[in-house]
Amino acid sequence: MIDKEDLSFDQTHIWHPYTSLTKPLPTYPISSAKGVRLIMDDGRELIDGMSSWWTAIHGYNVPELNEAANHQLSQMSHVMFGGITHKPAIELCKKLLAITPNNLEKVFLADSGSVSVEVAMKMAIQYQHAKGSANRRKFKTIRNGYHGDTTGAMSVCDPEGGMHHLFSDFVPKHIFLDQPRKRFDEYYDEKEFRELAQFFRLNADKCAAFILEPIVQGAGGMWFYSPDYLKKIKELCEQHDLLLIADEIATGFGRTGKMFACEHANISPDILCVGKALTGGYMTLAATLTTEHVADTICRGEAGVFMHGPTFMGNPLACAIANRSLELLTSSQWEDKIKTIERQLKREILPIANSLNVKDTRVLGAIGVVEMKENVDVPKAQKFFVENGVWIRPFRNLIYIMPPYIIAEEELRKLTHAISAYVQSS
Q: How far apart are CA 327 and CA 329, in angstroms?
């Protein structure tokens, strides 16, 4: 139980994500969680619409994941990965290679999503250096993207409208293409593709790779764009000898209706970043996968090795839980679950667009978004949602949900009705 003194200490001394310590946002004490429900200290239950930022796809307090954690704890929680290997890491890498595109054959286990992006970017730089193209050290990407909070990852987030614009004079400068504007179910024409081709002709010779979030731009605006665009980017990367890095940290493991969002465009990246849902929300873990060609080129280069090695790389406890989480996912009817969630979100989220203060609504897979015309008053919205028995965390002008895959129809309806009620009251 968190008492008033503890809560005061929290607000005075503990930084929460993207939160001020001089004007802290309210925090709500949670004592436990089970299924799709967060149990507050005072006994109230909140239906979780956020999957703890895309991670808890199986819900909370999952017996199979608890068992995997306890079993691994009885063996070893951690050993260094330098010069040592272990079964959980080997099994996890086998599972990842089995469900990702066939061209991906090499796996680098990382600490977190941001680190997996840093690893991907370093892979691209080392690859080009080993090929004798050391001048290729810039990255291409698209505006309104988000790839994490570490330095390299920040440098390929939107430099002006993104969360990291304050650091624009600190991070390396890269080359940004306008955000794709055709929606998921729309098509590009030849004129638009000619503009893309011109952008590549002007900039490709100084770039190591093109990095993007396939199909779904997450924290940069929850925008769902056309698979046509992704196909063309892949084609142009191949034409100009650029690697394509797909950041699937948020979209991977079924969230968009495909196991990986790249599948909507039937393309395979040269480097793939995964994280978030990898352990079902139990522990931090990510991975960067690449092709045999990229890995061999790097290891035949000047360094002879890939120059990265996190302290907690291949953590056995995290790997063991990730193994069981992937088993749960692949053995379930996850595609049917996502389709069912998507149908309900379309019925209950899309009509909210008719409200005067709403700019747009959109749904893809198990993601529902309400884009307001003005920024959301987060403390007010948070209080409203908690009082209505749901946990939804808006940002900027976006109210969105990506619930656990196990959510029941009536539980999801409570989330969508709470959003509708808030929109009508604001």
A: 5
Active site residue 18: yes
In DSSP notation, 54-122 reads HT-TT-BS-HHHHHHHHHHHHH-S---SSS---HHHHHHHHHHHHHS-TTEEEEEEESSHHHHHHHHHH
- Mean pLDDT over each residue of the chain, to the nearest integer: 95
Q: What share of the chain is helix, strand, coil (3-state, %, to 5)?
A: 40, 20, 40
Going by DSSP bridges, is the β-strand pair 390-391/45-48 parallel, antiparallel, or unpaired? Answer: parallel
Q: Where in the chain is the domain with CATH 3.90.1150.10?
A: 4-61+333-425
For residues 297 and 300, give the distance between their C-alpha atoms in angstroms, rounded to a whole number: 5
Q: Which of 95, 247, 400, 405 is catalytic?
A: 247
pLDDT of 387 above 90: yes
- 337 belongs to the catalytic site: no
Domain with CATH 3.40.640.10 in the chain: 76-331
Tens-digit pLDDT profile for residues 42-61: 999 999 999 999 999 999 99
Catalytic entry in 276, 282, 400, 422: 276
Q: What is the CATH number of domain 4-61+333-425?
A: 3.90.1150.10
Query: Which of the residues 6, 18, 373, 377 is marked catalytic?
Result: 18
Q: What is the pTM of this model?
A: 0.96
Q: CA-to-CA distance for 89 and 73, rounded, in angstroms?
A: 15
CATH 1.50.10.10 fits 76-331, yes or no: no
Q: Are 117 and 150 in contact (CB under 8 A)?
A: yes
How many CB atoms neighbour CB 62 within 10 A? 24
> pLDDT tens digits, residue range 308-319?
999 999 999 999
- What are the start-end ranges of the H helices in 222-309? 227-239, 292-299
Q: Report DSSP state, residue 206.
A: G
Reading the block at residue 126, the tokens are 């080392």
Active site residue 247: yes
Active-site residue 146, yes or no? yes
Q: SS3 for 305-341, per residue? A: CCCCCCCCCCCHHHHHHHHHHHHHHHHCCHHHHHHHH
pLDDT (tens digit per residue) in 145-185: 999 999 999 999 987 765 666 787 788 889 999 999 999 99
